[in-house]
Amino acid sequence: MLKPGDVAPDWDLPCAFDGRISRLRFDRIRSDMVVLFFYPHDFSFICPTEVTGFHRAQPAFRQEQTSIVGVSVDDPELHLRWSQELGGISYPLIADQDGRLARQYGVLDEREKVAMRATFILDQRRIIAYCVASSINVGRSVSETLRVVRALRSGRLCPADWQPGDEFGPLDQKF
Amino acid sequence: MRGALNRGLKVPLAVLKPEEQRRIFERLANVREIVFGVQDGVLTTAGVLAGLSGAVSGRAQIILSALASTAAGALSMGAGAYLGTRAETEVIRTEMRRARRQAKAQPYIVQESLLEQLAKEGLSREASYRVVRLLSSAPQALYSTAEEKIYGLSGGSFGNPIADGLLMGFAFLAGAVIPLLPFMMLSSVRAGLFAALATTALVLFGVGYLIEGRLAEHPHPALAGVRFLVIALGAAALGYVIGLAISPLGAAVP
Could you tell me if B92 and B157 are in contact, meaning their C-beta atoms sit under 8 angstroms apart? Predict the structure, then answer.
């Protein structure tokens, strides 16, 4: 699995976005930061809580100049039907059908041939600033991802459990 | 039971009500007790008759011993089947309670597991999702389907200890009587033993032929009968050979 400080591998893959199938190129994403989250499958009973969670939180991410991109090994048609099933998703769902992108990020479960539940936050230079992976049966926290984005964007030292409005660490010290 | 089996064989299962279909399958599961009991009863009694014919001179003694062995065997096998089924049922019931507790506490885990299982059985992921979603509208249907699909458990997994015990005991008794009857009818021990062994072989072949050959629709019923006979007699013969091989050790035991 890639780690903070690694250069994020790029991609040019089909995706479902805005009610249709199109392509998404990594270098076309203009936002300051990117939240790239891998999930195992469309049409699942665990993933929708995350997919819709990121959808609901998208205005807050947008405020932080952050794009959200979801990735699974399903095909773009299934992504489209899945996003319709969930009532519309406001960010692109990439179709990483051969699992190449997940493998490049080191989050492909080779036995099951699906992506693990992993989240990467990429900074302006498209360097990995944060990453986390969890058990296939445990959904991740959208609010925690947003908290980390805000902390990273502050550019300051943020102590444990830092929240916007909390004090930062001293300017002359590094953790 | 025969009525139910015949009905199950002659009437297409699909035209029966679901509960009748289930009952037939549950009764068919008792074939195990019947085959086990008959085979053990026949072989044990034939073995007792053969062994005592060489060791004891009195015909009455042989018959009395064989009758005692039959009674003890039937009771032992019946009790064993009762205890075995009872233990199995308790373990399965406990497992089902645990599975149901998990299903109630974490329904999404059960939904996901059921979805994966349906997808493995050929449904598309999307179709599996929709089926599970539909089932989720009736929790009882979701739980029972999940128990069957994920854990392989169902209402039919519960055996009836008393029925199994009685069936096993009577099957043993029926099997034991078969070699015993010709032995009792013939006055000569040698002729009686030959008749008992011949009947034993015939019954073993018959059980294989009828159960596996006819009931289970083996493509070659006679072959199924021969296989049953060979395996049953082979095990008995192997036991006899092992007995012969270790018999010299008897001399060393004070």
Answer: yes
